[in-house]
User: Fold this.
Amino acid sequence: GCSALNGSSSGDNSSDSSSGGLEKTKLNVGILTGQQGVSTKLAEKYGYFKDQGLEVTSKMFASGPAAYPELLNGNMDFIITNYISFFQAIAQKTVQAKIVVDVDQLNENGLVVIAKQGSGIKEAKDLVGKKVSIHQSASVADVLLRATLKDHDVDPNSVHYQQIKFPDIPAAIQAGTIDAGVELEPYITQAEKQGAEPVLKIVTGSTANITAAGYIALDSFIEKNPKTVAAFQRAMVPAQKAAADRTKLLEVLPDLTGVDKDTASLLNIDTFPTSVSASQLQRVITVMQNYGGLTAQLDANQYIVPTPQV
Amino acid sequence: MPTMLEVSGLKHRFGGGEGAHTAVRDLSFTVETGELACIVGPSGCGKSTMLRCIAGLIKPTGGTISLHGDKVEGVPGDLAVVFQDYSRSLFPWLTVAGNVEFPLRSAKIPRADRRARAREALESVGLSAAARKYPWQLSGGMQQRVSIARALASRPALLLMDEPFASVDAQTRFELEDLLRRVKQQQGSTVLLVTHDIDESVYLGDRVLVLSKSPASIVADLKVDLPAERDQISTRESAEFVALRAEVARLLRNRTDEAQAAAEDIAEWELSEQETKTEERTS
Amino acid sequence: MPTMLEVSGLKHRFGGGEGAHTAVRDLSFTVETGELACIVGPSGCGKSTMLRCIAGLIKPTGGTISLHGDKVEGVPGDLAVVFQDYSRSLFPWLTVAGNVEFPLRSAKIPRADRRARAREALESVGLSAAARKYPWQLSGGMQQRVSIARALASRPALLLMDEPFASVDAQTRFELEDLLRRVKQQQGSTVLLVTHDIDESVYLGDRVLVLSKSPASIVADLKVDLPAERDQISTRESAEFVALRAEVARLLRNRTDEAQAAAEDIAEWELSEQETKTEERTS
Amino acid sequence: MRVALRRLIGLIAFLVLWEVIVRVGLLPSNVLPPASTVLVRFAGLFGNADFITGAVSTLLSWAIALGLTVLIAVPLGVLLGSVRWLRLSISPIVEFLRPLPAVALIPLVILLLGSDAQTKITLAVFASVWPVLFNTIYAMGEIDRQILDTARVYRTPPLRQLFTVLLPSIAPFTMTGVRLSASISLIVLVTTEYLTLGTVGIGQFVYFSGTTSGRMDMVLAATVFIGLAGYLVNSGLLGVQRRWLGWAAAGGAV
Amino acid sequence: MTRSKWFDFGRRWLVFVAFLVVWQLVTKAVDDPYFPPPTDILAAAKDAFFGNTALTDDILPSIGRILAGWGISVVVGVPLGLALGRSPVVTDYVSPMFFFARSVPAALLVPVFLVAFGIGPRMEIITILWGTIWPILLNTIDGARAVDDVKIETVRAFRISRADWIFGVVLPTALPKVFAGMRLGLSLAIILMVVAELMGGSTSGIGYQMILTQSSFVLSQMWAWIVLVSLLGYVANLLLSMAERRALAWHPGFQTEAAM
Ligand SMILES: Nc1ncnc2c1ncn2[C@@H]1O[C@H](COP(=O)(O)OP(=O)(O)OP(=O)(O)O)[C@@H](O)[C@H]1O
Ligand SMILES: Nc1ncnc2c1ncn2[C@@H]1O[C@H](COP(=O)(O)OP(=O)(O)OP(=O)(O)O)[C@@H](O)[C@H]1O
Ligand SMILES: [Mg+2]
Ligand SMILES: [Mg+2]
Assistant:
């Protein structure tokens, strides 16, 4: 309860006002930085949660895995996570949870390999023997790059993978620390200003439009609060639609990424789906099985809560 | 007079194994309440070790020490010590007055009383002017006097002093000697004092204990038959004084020479009871 | 004999402002090469401060010190000091032998030579057996002797000793006194020695400097007209010895009494030149 | 005053060296912006509401963490320093705990305590307890025995002995530990904020207004603030040390 | 070993075993994936460390980096600390930078380090150096200042050479504190190894594995790596305290005991 310590934004979540027959109206959700947090912010801003009788407080996390402890200990009701983390957690039986909202689908310009202009790297086979950053081992970038290399008949193990975080990649490329890196927005746009260019698409072919991140909730929570979950899913539908609108997106994106408005207006924007699709998620599982070291046989249908019809 | 202190069969060995060193070997003596016993003995013979054992600072490896008939375990109550290494026994973060008051504060003596006693003690050692200085601002002899003042201020029943006047000038030394006897008389304290000054041991003491070379044992236990009231000039000129100091000197010299000659059969000495024999064999 | 040391108008004041303390006030004297000068004076009068100034350890606030005619700035070469606070001047991480050898190492004396000198010095102070012990394993008197051995081993041209025999027994003290005179004679060292023992000052010294109460100035500068070869028994019994020690004692007592009486007009004392007058006014 | 002048000269030399390194082109200016730019940004920070909120939270957490550290580590150090069997019995556990990296513990602590300020404070305390604890234990071993004997001989009651003999004796070295801990806990706080983004703080501010927008000048401006805060607190602690522990030969300049 | 030493040995490990048992019981009872019981961790350790290249790819390189970073800190920090401890004037010039740099989190400077030193051991060693030098330097400075006045005067009076003064007097005086600093530095080195491997682009190492297993939720293996780090710290500390016991054998008031 110390507002100076935690910043003034954190709300009080103790009392429960019962409205509209919902089991729980005050929700805490964990979101990620960048485009994946946009729809939630818009839902807060435009009152989509309120429309459903929900009072939502969102909190930012640096990465999917960082938020899991807060989901597990009950401080968070829903968290956004990338699906790679999610299925790994499922496979390791770290959580029993389901996807309730599919938040973010990649498009081919939103996650690409970049390199210095004139570096000579133009296609997949040029990466052989090069130092390429994949942000973090077993991340989306890692798995998709390997898949793309395989699609181009390049041995995924012939590349020297480096773990440099997305924000640090442009400088590292410029200084010659690495030859190339898988980069996402808004850093692609920034890197282009510093003399880098996209050289290889990795969200294409077998990985085209692959879905990347979504809201999950614990099975126990879903069982106990079915109406709340449904209300949350309903609130997120207009939110996702709003996120696809660049002007609205630009209203909240700077807060989520720290980029200025000018850069933000140049960004490549992802796709924001309005329903959970088992077949989309099954593609993620397949890619992970092929390139991400996932050995378990998972059926995506068991891990979703279908979106209710509005 | 009741017995204040009883030391019997005291032994102490430092360390173990090869580096072991026996500092004190089979010391036995008693000191009556109100007595002032001086201890003389060669450097390194074990005098300080003995005092530390009596103060309960080190646990002797053998023998017992009793105070008022109770065996000493740990530091006994109502005791004060003037350490040989006086400069390190003063607390550098306290002023001179603070150092003198230190034991009084532990004894829960009211503030005003404490002040008065500290002032008085410092005055008696001639350091009133230095009360608000820190120990490192004092000369060696002044530090030593602070440590004497601290011991006196706590008005102990038993006072152990390890070469307390080693660093003060002759004049001050005389004054402090007289002060000590006066304080002892007035407060009925029992005093055990180590000194290297043979004259001092006779002038000050009611008894003089002469120790052998290391490991210490008792060579002689001499009663000093001088009047209780002593005077720096007349006492020192008296025939008894001159005779006694000559005897102490002889005993010390003797023991030292003999010790060198008979270093091998140290184990056979049974000296504490053989004073008479020793006295006959003067050089 | 050439002049070894010349002190003229030496003054030293500790601190500044209100807490300032003048320890030494206008000291002037000279010491010839090969002379052994003893310094006596009341506790806290400024003897150690004076030695520190001569050793170049503190910069006096006034006056000059010359060695062989050169003004002393910083620590002069070929000097050794026995500090009053001997226990702190030994290095606890070095053995006794290590402590004695330490200055020799810096003087780049070859290892074997170093060893030999250290062994010899320790033997002469009676500590051969303790060579491999650490200082904290020694008694106070033994530590003091280690510090004497260290000074002797470095065979200095000028030796400053601050109450070097304060913690050793009478017998050892006699031996060390004789040792010191012997060493001085053999090596031609100049020695400045502070002592509180009046007998010692006369027995040891070629000169005795008597200092006043704080702030120190010179009360008397007595030439000791005893033969260079001295003997603990016969010398001490000689008429000159007895007369001289009585005079030193008188001078000291006198100064102290007068100091108390005339504490106010301290500033007016011009004592260093007034020895004769002082001598007439004996009590 | 001379001292202040020397420090100023040292500081200016450092800034000039920094400026030169960048101007000469040893490091690209978008990675290491010149000192002048960073100082301008630094001045600008105080007009930034997000930064102020973050700084208040971080500094407050810092004070709490440091207070807790001292409250835990000093008594524990005195206890372990004086009770040999306890020290021997506990040392295996202590030695296993000590190298645990705070960053790897983040999820575990979040699970137990949530991701608000208590997590970063806990991690900061965990990391900064050791310098104080160890320096205190070492200081206990270094107390002059003669001093302890004196206290014992005058039957100083244990509690009084603690406050009037032990604490003054160990204070100079314990204080060194506290000053080390002060910087370590600040580092852990900011790093935790930076890595988790879960709580408001300078670390979070740096991430959003520096890292994600490739603005190294902002990162370094905030870094200057952190360094300055460390400097000021260290100087304050030093002042305390000089004022109250002036009698001790030890007592740092750094 | 004497009887009492065996007794000490037994007692301290008894406490440790008790700690393990409590840990096992509590984690079993709580049954949380983030807190696996020690038995599970042991099983995971077998998978993680044996039958693959973990030793040569991860463990040894990380140990090498720790030793290099910490070693440089000692080699630079101790002499520098001794020098600064004895020369207040020089200290005045550099102290602002020290005050300042000490509080700067290495994590924030990783991008600068990355560009300046590239990916790899050099950058990681610098990061470790950045964090470990302070406790060593600061403790050494404090230790060097603790030479008491009488010893300083002794050294001056006997014209002890500069080398003997530094190595024969200042260093031994400072030594207990230097050891305290080295111990602190060692545990910080291990922590910074993890930070460096987390942020510095490496693709192997103990820290890398720790973070990888954590982010892919192989939590019992993550714990295995954590325990390995503990063990490393423990062993390093053990070796250091053995060295310390030798170096401080002269110290009267000091009972340094090897942790065993
Ligand atoms: N560091 C210091 N700061 C302030 N005053 C000091 C300092 N050192 C000594 N004094 C003062 O200077 C005077 C002379 O001290 P010094 O040590 O020279 O006396 P001394 O003649 O050697 O006495 P003693 O025979 O007791 O050793 C004393 O009054 C003492 O209080
Ligand atoms: N801590 C110790 N460890 C080992 N030996 C010690 C220790 N303390 C003293 N000794 C030895 O015990 C013997 C007696 O020491 P002690 O200090 O009792 O002598 P002393 O009679 O007081 O001598 P002095 O008159 O020189 O002070 C000495 O030989 C000394 O070497
Ligand atoms: Mg003794
Ligand atoms: Mg003196």
